Amino acid sequence: MSAKPSEQLKRVELLAHVFPSLAKDATQDLDSLCLEIHYEAGELIAQEESYVSGLYIIQAGLVKTGKYGAAGAGKRVLRLLGVGELFGLEAVALARETHLQYAKALIKTSVVFIERNNLLAFRNQHRELCADFTRWLARDVVMLEFKLTRDAVETVDGNLAIYLIALAHKYGQPAEKGAILDLPVPRRTMAEMLGVSIETLMRALRRFRDRDLIETSGRRVTITDLEKLEERARTTPFYLSVIEDTH
């Protein structure tokens, strides 16, 4: 889904994207179970280990999800979720009582919320929904495996390159040979995403500027040569296609 963070989709259109296995009338039935919730920038949507009450689908805005370190020391951002993406499905599918990650709105955000028991009851009436659950969970597994492998063996520069490529595919505005990323993502969040200090991130960004891969101005990052950045990322076309579809 190519919608940008500032755009808000109609609810039925959003549900049809998230659950394509459902027939049109079933999608409309599911719409009747939905509740729209609005969050301000910086507001916590779900706390790690808090009670899981349902599934959240991003309708507008941008959300970061992550994990806290031991005894609350430090945190790691795992994903940035935009329009048409979701969180909480693993807890719903496993019937767990707690959120596995925290979720926070980076900008003003709207979500479509479906209460867990209502969603599970709806699934029992529409078993085709299981195919969509499986697709979302499988994509998360692929990306988690990819992320764990790269964190273990790839350099900071390589991981930064793949992160910028993912943002370009998901949110970037096309530019000559590259893309313009104008997102409200602070450098600290980028560092948490990569699992490095902000000082390490700034040095990596400086190296990318020196190699004419990017230009920066405030929070705006302009990728000046996407092809060279993909070479620096050292990944396969398969994972690039998964990144484009899921990040």
Architecture overview:
Helix 5 (129-153) packs across helix 10, helix 6 (156-171) packs across helix 9 and helix 7 (187-194) packs across helix 8. By secondary structure, the chain is an alpha+beta fold. It is 45% helix and 23% strand. A four-stranded antiparallel sheet has the order 1-8-3-6. The protein has a four-stranded antiparallel sheet with strand order 2-7-4-5. It has a four-stranded antiparallel sheet with strand order 9-10-12-11. It has two domains: 11-129, Jelly Rolls, CATH 2.60.120.10; 154-246, Winged helix-like DNA-binding domain superfamily/Winged helix DNA-binding domain (Arc Repressor Mutant, subunit A), CATH 1.10.10. A hairpin with a 2-residue loop joins strand 9 and strand 10 (178-182). The chain has helices at 11-18, 24-31, 89-94, 116-125, 129-153, 156-171, 187-194, 198-210, 226-233, 237-246, and strands at 34-39, 44-46, 54-60, 63-68, 75-81, 86-87, 102-105, 109-115, 173-175, 178-182, 214-217, 220-223.
Give the helix/strand layout.
Blueprint: H1 11-18, H2 24-31, E1 34-39, E2 44-46, E3 54-60, E4 63-68, E5 75-81, E6 86-87, H3 89-94, E7 102-105, E8 109-115, H4 116-125, H5 129-153, H6 156-171, E9 173-175, E10 178-182, H7 187-194, H8 198-210, E11 214-217, E12 220-223, H9 226-233, H10 237-246
Antiparallel strand pairs: 1-8, 2-7, 3-6, 3-8, 4-5, 4-7, 9-10, 10-12, 11-12
Mean pLDDT: 85
User: Order of strands side by side in the largest beta sheet?
Assistant: 1-8-3-6
Largest sheet: 4 strands, antiparallel
- Could you estimate the helical fraction of the residues in percent? 40-55%
Do you know the CATH architecture of the largest domain? Sandwich
In whole angstroms, the N-to-C terminal distance is: 11 Å
Q: Please state the overall shape, judged from the principal axes of the Cα atoms.
A: globular
Rg (C-alpha, Å): 18 Å
How many domains?
2
Number of DSSP helical runs: 10
Computed structural class: alpha+beta
| CATH class division of the largest domain | Mainly Beta
Strand content: 15-25%
Ranges with pLDDT <50 over ≥5 residues? none
The CATH homologous superfamily of the largest domain is called Jelly Rolls
Q: Could you spell the SSE succession in H and E letters?
A: HHEEEEEEHEEHHHEEHHEEHH
Strand elements, count: 12
CATH fold label of the largest domain: Jelly Rolls
